[in-house]
Write a structure and sequence with these properties.
The chain has an eight-stranded mixed sheet, with helices on both faces. The chain has a seven-stranded parallel sheet with strand order 4-5-3-6-7-2-8, sandwiched between helices. Strands 25, 26, 27, 28, 29 and 30 form a six-stranded antiparallel sheet that branches. The chain is an alpha/beta fold. It is globular. Strand 20 and strand 21 form a beta hairpin. 36% of the residues lie in helices and 23% in strands.
Length: 825
């Protein structure tokens, strides 16, 4: 819960802090350091606009808020509260640290206080949904602190997988503000709704925090979970108002309406004050080392981030370093601790790592230490990206572009949460995407955040939730409008599969097993692998099943809480990795291979000499070896083969082929064929969300110059979920429009050799290499000439000129390297 005003002590502390510009100057002191900053963006401070709380808010609640140092609300807080009291579902889409929590907590607490005085019954209840356990636990602490003057009128409690069983019955019977996550709602609360009948009958508000995280297939699942919740509430006589919050979302009302199925009012005019934000783009220098095939090696983002975290800690600057991998977070904390110990041993204890896979008590202890200021620096994965209250942070270091602008601003917004000035530093990894971004700041600072894309009508998502709904209460025709128009097609299929049976006017679940177990709403799948210390039998934590082959294989270096372990054995049958403590002078990186085979072609359409196909495929991924890299420098010390079983994904795909004659027509030589196909694959994945209502993280792609099943150059785009999720099918049916838009996106991009706006992908497993922009344009032009229904696209003079320029120069200059650019906005 962000505070609107600070106490005198916190104001004095803020006044004693150096400005973000001063902190950056200290980090950049020295000629070699200064050259690493390629751009500095200054976002000026902004004054706040106050309002008054609606007169329907209980005076006791206003007094409790004022006791926390908040005299008056910001205008957007008061407006959101007014809508909530009017019974309007509302989404508050304002900046990080703008007090969104207070915007929904005040009307919720006031309503709970009214309900506590009701002569009969339990009184009003409220449900809070967070995407992570950490955020729910943090919010519970804030609610308890705020509601302390109200006595027992507000009774918050966290109900998730970590909640002890002895506490769960009390929560069901007596808690009136339950904080949980969509997973627990799906698997625990809704299937057991008779035990929650009293709570659901009195449910007045449902708070959906960080709603922008519910995107793609995960978001589509959550949308159906919320519809199941609304259905059960209606059966118990309640109709809760939905209050949604998001710091980073485009078209928030549209996304919120799609998520909840209800009309939603948008409050997006941020009236909170903001301190100055200095955002630096930082490129590590080249080293004298040589990588594979003699390529120059740039200093790793991990080593550079560890240096920056060390320097910030020495300055007394409270900081978080965000890292994309668990291993990276641990490694940065270890390096920083070692370097701090050389300066002052007491400082080494004030830096730690935070990531998923820790035991619940470890996570809670780290959150408390960060909140209290006991920790000065934290190396964290995105588990800490969301709205956990870490007020007082001065700086954020981001080790590598996190994949979306929404995540970038979400992470940068962790600093300055008490209104003080803040510093954010994006440290580029050694790959084309990051290199492009640090030399083209307009791609980050002049573009809006991505839209939140989800499709609750996706039949692959809808089907298991219809089963779950029928198991909760028989599904009637009156319920079908709630779940969407796709029900008419999906229900007969479920009947044919003997999952549902229609009796009179309702559909019933026919199986003994739990219908909620038909789907994992996060798509993780598989039993987590337990990481166990071999000598003591102590459980250190867990690793997701999908990541186990690449992170805890035999010989892997595993980091946990600053300690280094070597994996002795990985038992896949029992899902256990045995580790022993060690201090190897290297880290390990797994290498894998991916192949795709066609299982069945459902539909095939000739596009001139080309073929457009849709059907079932099997994607095979296998971890085949691991590299040992020297700490800090990243120098490769050697490669060790591994004998791990391949992992397979049976899913649905769309694919197209081209012939040798078409390659000649497009002037595609063997030297640029791979890069041309690869670039077309990337761009088509990037454009598909416009046509298939998906997220690019929900789909995958493979491009092969000579595929063994087609015996031709082939590009595949497949659903990244077992059995498919409907995206490839939609791509097939809109292929002409989709691939035409793909070609135009590449051809119209102003870049010279390819960039994130056209052919580079933030999730490319090959490091965006090889890519050939002009070859992709020519290849798609020839492909689309054979497309049915309408005239083929003409190759304009501009396109032809673009296709001819720089035939061999696909690895063009990054532009303005080493130049520090400063812009104020």
């Amino acid at each position: 819960m962000a505070k609107n005003h600070r106490s005198d002590r916190s104001q004095a502390h803020a006044a004693s802090r150096p400005s973000p510009g001063t902190v950056l100057d200290r980090l950049a002191s020295g000629p070699s350091r200064a050259a690493r900053i390629t751009h500095t963006e200054h976002l000026p401070p902004r004054a706040g606009r106050h309002a008054v709380w609606p007169d329907r808010i209980r005076s006791e609640v206003i007094a409790a808020v004022q006791a926390c140092g908040i005299e008056h609300p910001w205008a957007h807080q008061a407006l959101a509260a007014e809508h909530a009291l009017d019974g309007d579902s509302v989404v508050v889409a304002t900046g990080t640290a703008s007090g969104k929590s207070l915007a929904y907590l005040v009307p919720v607490m006031s309503t709970l206080l009214d309900g506590a005085e009701a002569p009969n019954g339990r009184g009003a209840t409220a449900l809070y949904l967070a995407p992570t356990k950490a955020l729910a636990a943090d919010q519970c602490r804030s609610v308890k602190k705020l509601s302390q003057p109200l006595g027992t009128s507000v009774r918050p409690a966290v109900y998730d997988g970590d909640t002890p069983f002895e506490e769960r019955e009390w929560i069901r019977q007596y808690a009136n503000y339950v904080l949980t996550n969509p997973d627990m709602l799906h698997r625990g609360i809704l299937p057991s709704h008779p035990r929650w009948s009293s709570f659901l009958k009195s449910l007045r508000y449902v708070v959906v925090d960080e709603c922008h995280t519910y995107r793609g297939v995960f978001g589509s699942h959550v949308a159906q979970v919320l519809r199941r919740l609304r259905r059960l509430c209606a059966r118990y006589g309640s109709s809760p108002v939905f209050l949604l919050a998001s710091a980073t979302a485009a078209e928030p009302a549209v996304a919120a309406r799609r998520l909840t199925g209800l009309p939603v009012v948008e409050v997006a005019d941020d009236a909170s004050p903001r301190g100055e934000l200095v955002f630096a783009l930082w490129e590590p220098p080249l080293t004298e080392l040589q990588g594979e095939k003699g390529a120059p090696v740039r200093r790793t983002a991990t080593a550079e981030t560890a240096d920056l975290l060390t320097d910030l800690t020495v300055q007394g600057v409270r900081s978080v370093a965000f890292v994309r991998s668990r291993r990276g977070a641990e490694l940065i904390s270890v390096i920083a601790q070692e370097r701090l110990a050389e300066v002052d041993r007491s400082l080494a204890r004030r830096v730690a790592a935070y990531r998923g896979g820790y035991l619940p008590e470890e996570r809670r202890a780290l959150e408390r230490a960060l909140h209290s200021g006991e920790l000065l620096g934290l190396a964290a994965t995105t588990a800490l990206e969301l709205g956990v209250d870490v007020s007082g942070l001065d700086a954020v270091v981001i080790a590598g572009y996190p994949g979306t602008r929404a995540s970038l601003w979400q992470q940068a917004g962790r600093a300055g949460r008490s209104g003080q000035g803040a510093l954010a530093v994006l440290v580029a990894r050694d790959d084309p995407l990051d290199t492009f971004l640090v030399h083209h700041p307009e791609a980050l600072f002049d573009q809006p955040v991505e839209s939140t894309v989800l499709d609750p009508d996706n039949p692959y998502v809808l089907a298991p939730h219809l089963c779950a709904a029928a198991a909760e209460l028989p599904l009637t025709e009156e319920d079908l409008d709630l779940f969407g128009p796709a029900c008419a097609d999906v229900l007969p299929q479920l009947e044919a599969a003997k999952l549902l049976r229609r009796r009179t006017k309702a559909w019933h679940w026919t199986r003994r097993e739990r219908a909620a177990d038909l789907t994992d709403i996060r798509g993780a799948g598989g039993r987590p692998v337990q990481v166990v210390e071999a000598d003591t039998g102590r459980l250190l934590g867990t690793v997701d099943a999908g990541a186990a082959h690449s992170t805890v294989h035999e010989g892997a270096v595993h980091l946990h809480q600053g300690r280094t372990y070597l994996v002795r054995t990985l038992d896949l049958e029992d899902s256990v990795a045995l580790v022993e403590q060690a201090e190897p002078p290297y880290s390990t990186v797994a290498r894998d291979t991916t192949s795709i085979s066609i299982l069945e072609t459902d539909t095939e359409i000739p596009w001139g000499a080309s073929r457009l196909c849709y059907g079932s495929v099997e994607v095979t991924n296998q971890v085949v070896s691991y590299l040992r890299r020297r700490l800090i420098t990243g120098e490769v010390l050697g490669e060790t083969k591994l004998d791990l079983p391949p992992r397979t994904l049976r899913t649905r795909a769309v694919w197209w082929t081209v012939t040798e004659d078409q390659l000649d027509e497009a002037r595609i030589t063997p030297e640029i064929l791979g890069g041309s196909l690869h670039a077309a694959e990337h761009a088509s994945i990037g454009m598909l969300p416009l046509f298939a209502t998906c997220d690019r993280w929900d789909i995958g792609g493979v491009s092969i110059p000579l595929h063994p099943d087609t015996l031709l150059p082939t590009v595949f785009v497949y659903d990244g979920h077992p059995g498919g999720a409907g995206f490839a099918e939609r791509a097939f049916h809109t292929a002409r429009a989709w691939l035409t838009a793909t070609r135009e996106a590449i051809a119209s991009c102003e870049c010279d050799a390819g960039c994130p706006s056209c052919i580079q992908s933030p999730k490319c497993g090959n490091g965006n290499d090889p890519l050939h922009k002009r070859g992709a344009v020519r290849l798609l032009t020839v492909l689309l000439r054979g497309a049915p229904e309408g005239e083929p696209p003409e190759e304009t003079a501009e396109t032809a000129e673009t296709a001819e320029i720089g035939e061999t120069g696909q690895n063009g200059e990054a532009g303005e390297a080493g130049v520090r650019r400063v812009r104020r906005r």
